[in-house]
Amino acid sequence: MPPTEVAVHDPTILAQARAILDACRSGQEMQQAVLDAVQRNETWRGRQCINLLAPEAPTSPTVRALLASEIGTRAAEGHIGVVQRWFAGTKYIDEVEALCVELLKQAFNCRYADHRLMGSMLGNMAVYYALAEPGDVIMTVAQPFGGHSSNRADGPAGQRGLKIVDIPFDPVELTVDLELFRKMAPLVKPKLITLGLSMTLFPLPVREMKDVIQEWGGRLFFDGAHQAGLIAGGQFQDPLAEGADVLTGSAGKTFGGPQSGMMMWNDPALTVPLTQAVFPVLAATHQVNRVAALAVSAAEMIAFGRAFMAQIVRNAQALAAALDRRGIPILGKHKGYTATHQVIANVRQMGGGLDVAHLLARANMITNKNLLPHDAPEAWDRPSGLRLGTIEVTRLGMKEPQMDQIAEFMARVLVEKEPADSVLEDVIEFRQPYQTLYYCFDNGLPA
Ligand SMILES: *Cc1c(COP(=O)(O)O)cnc(C)c1O
To answer: How many CA atoms, within 13 angstroms, populate the side-chain half-sphere of residue 399?
Structure first.
């Protein structure tokens, strides 16, 4: 008997790919199969969809071009400098990387930054490696309140052997329950607390929590994967200024850069442990093309961040209010819906987040299912919520009136139950005039 196949990836989709390759008569045809799939995505997602995924951002033409640049074929492991590198020939690479570090420091108004992490997931691992030991107790936010797996048992935090206690979270105010935290924290004396939210609507009490844990020398880590651009653009709280010891971010979310990790801090005592957690622990060749693209996106953020991020938040608030007016329940209404790029809808009555997201996708509106505070963490596959983000629509030059139109398209599908196919044509037509990216040196600000 042949051994049973074990697949984590969907076996049907893998079988389809094998069938495509089996039908090819040459390697070049196989290459063409890949190019065709990429092109289909570009035409659909890149030109015809209203992309409302909160962790996605389209990058400027310059950033895109840099991702294909020659420098990305060069090996440069180690730290910046002649002696700290393994390879010779890196003088211009050193220059690019140093520009990136200095631009990140300017963008985040901080003393130290690291540019070599491929993603925020690795940034979080670097923090857990540098600032905690296996067996230490840490406190992080659970998934139904927006917490991310990287800070939980199944991600880097758990795999580092850390004991995780939940930060108490208020399901109505959608922020930390500070009163309860003040009672709980001294009982477990966490070495580290992490504020890391993928569902993020309102500021968190960074300073107040740091004051509590400082008593036993606890550190506060702000995983700002989602909020990094808002922070750099001065449109959200500034965690480092409020007492966070380390800030990580995903450059491909609100920061509007290449998919990439970033790590920032101020305390010189953390420089050696954090930097050495990046190399030699987590990164060797670290994609210098990505570093160059990250550097340019930091320059874009310095120049355009304030205007770009302010419009992102105004658009999110406008989209939330427009959906609410049309009968789609939105979280945080009593607090003005949102202070970030995100809007969270409770779509339990409309079939739940999974079905609603796939229904909207048939009308070219791309969103994602999301756990809500009353969901059990195990319900991650069929949660009640839907998460929307306004990064891409904003960078395409859309403003408040367009948010109202998008809400109308969504309501036609979800409230008026119009067939998705009949809304599809209108969505494609609506999207047609928005094909240019703004808030970058290539195109500047939309009028
Ligand atoms: C997206 C996210 C991450 C992971 O970031 P990547 O850059 O995709 O690796 C980590 N933490 C939080 C809170 C996130 O939302």
So the answer is: 7
> For the segment 92-112, what is each residue's pLDDT rounded down to a tens digit?
999 999 999 999 999 999 999
Which residues, at least 6 apart from 287, have a Cβ–Cβ distance to it below 8 Å? 72, 118
Q: Are 405 and 269 part of one and the same domain?
A: no
Tell me the per-residue pLDDT of 287-341, one tens digit each, with 9 for 90 and over. 999 999 999 999 999 999 999 999 999 999 999 999 999 999 999 999 999 999 9
Q: Which atom of ligand 1 is nearest to the CA of 55?
A: 1
Q: Separation of 93 CA from ligand 1 center, angstroms?
A: 27
Residue 163 shares a structural domain with residue 67 = yes
- Whole-number Å distance between alpha carbons of 405 and 420: 16
Report residues whose beta carbon is within 6 angstroms of any ligand 1 atom: 55, 119-121, 124, 148, 150, 196-198, 223, 225-226, 250, 261
Q: Ligand 1 test: best mutation among 118, 120, 387, most atoms within 8 Å of CB?
A: 120
Structural domains in the chain (count)? 2
Which atom belonging to ligand 1 lies closest to the Cα atom of 147?
13
Q: Are residue 277 and residue 347 in the same domain, yes or no?
A: no
Atom of ligand 1 nearest to the CA of 122: 9
